[in-house]
Each structure stands twice: as structure tokens, then as C-alpha cells.
């Protein structure tokens, strides 16, 4: 699809919708194709206007943003959902990712960063604000201890790919993964591409979920066992399928 990136804005507050429309329309490569005040309207408009990115609020009447995200992403891969959340909506992060959201940003994100985020998501990448990722880690900390084995879904994943998946779950970019593993950027991208295919994941956000749900990575309270890999998120304990474990700092 050529031309500006098509954006649908979904928020129950008219002032917020209008503000996002004005902001998005200031960018020559982006254009707002519709506004929705409820999740149900967002689903209907997405079907008719064919947006590439949906800016989705979570708390809306009739149908919330999580269910709207689930229905929009289930209808096809064309529309990617970027959920805008606030600190009191942390409990929705995991549900949003499970529903198919490609990213989360806080509503107080600077305008330039929001526009950049829309472009990133439209390009097929996943996007998680570091502070939102910290809260995602905290959600897993409060969950029951995962099984100490690699689930069947990782049966075909190689040892190197598991290492890459761990780094993705810690938030590292392809460039950072390449630097950490001392490989080329092309090699890192190849590993990520194979993981997306093997795990049937639409983007990096779903790879993060896979890493936690299979027990490959789990959040852990307390101090790390060795020096941090990266300072952004905090301590995360990863397992190697039951044969051992080590702590790392998330990216």
C-alpha cells in the first residue's frame, strides 16, 4: 500500500481523539482515516476504512479496547494496534498483547515519539515503551512459578534461537542482539525471522509472550547474580529448559 500511513483513532473522549487527529495529520506521511468513540465503532470502522495502524484506548464503553483489538487483529494482519495506556492501566498490558496488540505507549509520550511509534508499528515492528515493559515483567513476577521445562512449542527452536528469544524478551533490538552475540545484524535478523516463523508469531511482542509462557524467561525479584546486560528494565531470571538457570538484566 502506497501513500500516507492510514491511522484510525479510538478513544471515548472527543478532546483526546481530536488532539490525536490534529497531531497525526501534521505529519505528511500519516493520515487519520476515522475516529471511534467505542470499541465496537473501532471494529466497524477498521473493517470499512482499512487502517494500517489503530491508536486504541483501553477503557471505552460498549466494547473495551482489548476486545476491539482481538477482533480487529483476528480479521486480518493489515491493521496493527498500538494501545495508548496510563499508569493505572498496567493490568491490561498482558491482555492486550495476547489480543494481538503490536505495541504499548503511555499517553504522556512526547508527540514526536508517538508519531515515530506509529511509523514503527506500521512497518511491522512491535513497540513497547521501557516503562510499560517493566510493568509487563512485574505482571509475570506475580504469576505462579512457570514449569521448569521448555514447552513443546519450543521443540524446534535451536539453542542459539532460544538465546535470541531470551534477549528479545529482555527488550533488546536487533542491533543490540547482534552486538551482544557478536554476530552481524543480518544474522540477528535471520534468527528473529526464524523465531517468528517457528512460533507462528506476528511480531516481537508475541515473541516476548512466548518466552515467558514457555518458561524460557521468568521475572524474578531480588538482585541479579551477575552484571547487567542492559539497564532499562531490571532483573529477570531465565531458565534453560530445566538444566540450569541464570539471572540477567532486561534490555
Description:
The protein contains 10 helices and 9 strands. Mean pLDDT is 77; it is low at 145-151 and 220-251. The radius of gyration is 18 Å and the shape is globular. It has a 6-stranded parallel beta sheet, sandwiched between helices. Strands 7-8-9 form a 3-stranded antiparallel beta sheet. The protein folds into 2 domains: 5-128, Response regulator (Rossmann fold); 152-249, Orthogonal Bundle (Arc Repressor Mutant, subunit A). Helix 2 runs parallel beside helix 3 (65-74). Strand 4 (80-85), helix 4 (93-99) and strand 5 form a beta-alpha-beta unit. It is an alpha/beta fold and 251 residues long.
Main attributes of the structure:
251 residues, alpha/beta, Rossmann fold, Arc Repressor Mutant, subunit A, six-stranded parallel sheet, 9 strands, 17% strand, globular
Total helices: the number is 10
Q: What's the total number of strands?
A: 9
Chain-averaged pLDDT? 77
The backbone outline, from C-alpha atoms, is globular
Helix content: 40-55%
CATH superfamily of the largest domain: Response regulator
The strand line-up of the biggest sheet is 2-1-3-4-5-6
Give the H and E element order: EHEHEHEHEHEHHHHHEEE
Total tally of structural domains: 2
Q: Over all CA atoms, what is the radius of gyration?
A: 18 Å
Distance between the termini: 33 Å
Structural class: alpha/beta
Please tell me the CATH architecture of the largest domain by its name. 3-Layer(aba) Sandwich
CATH first level of the largest domain = Alpha Beta
Amino acid at each position: 500500500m502506497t501513500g500516507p500511513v492510514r491511522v484510525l483513532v479510538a478513544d471515548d473522549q472527543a478532546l483526546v481523539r481530536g488532539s490525536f487527529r490534529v497531531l497525526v495529520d501534521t505529519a505528511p506521511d500519516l493520515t487519520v482515516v476515522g475516529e471511534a468513540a467505542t470499541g465496537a465503532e473501532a471494529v466497524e470502522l477498521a473493517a470499512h476504512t482499512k487502517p494500517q495502524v489503530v491508536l486504541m484506548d483501553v477503557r471505552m464503553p460498549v466494547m473495551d479496547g482489548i476486545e476491539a483489538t482481538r477482533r480487529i487483529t483476528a480479521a486480518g494482519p493489515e491493521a496493527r494496534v498500538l494501545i495508548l495506556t496510563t499508569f493505572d492501566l498496567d493490568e491490561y498490558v498482558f491482555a492486550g498483547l495476547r489480543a494481538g496488540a503490536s505495541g504499548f505507549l503511555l499517553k504522556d509520550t512526547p508527540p514526536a515519539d508517538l508519531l515515530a511509534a506509529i511509523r514503527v508499528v506500521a512497518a511491522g515492528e512491535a513497540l513497547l515503551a521501557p516503562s510499560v515493559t517493566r510493568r509487563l515483567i512485574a505482571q509475570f513476577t506475580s504469576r505462579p512459578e512457570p514449569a521448569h521445562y521448555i514447552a513443546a512449542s519450543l521443540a524446534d527452536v535451536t539453542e542459539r534461537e532460544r538465546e535470541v528469544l531470551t534477549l528479545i524478551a529482555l527488550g533488546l533490538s536487533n542491533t543490540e542482539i547482534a552486538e551482544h552475540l557478536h554476530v552481524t545484524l543480518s544474522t540477528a535478523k535471520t534468527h528473529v525471522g526464524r523465531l517468528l516463523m517457528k512460533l507462528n508469531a506476528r511480531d516481537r511482542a508475541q515473541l516476548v509472550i512466548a518466552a515467558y509462557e514457555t518458561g524460557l524467561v521468568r521475572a524474578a525479584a531480588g538482585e541479579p547474580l551477575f552484571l547487567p546486560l542492559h539497564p532499562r528494565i531490571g532483573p529477570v531470571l531465565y531458565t534453560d529448559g530445566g538444566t540450569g538457570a541464570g539471572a540477567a538484566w532486561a534490555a
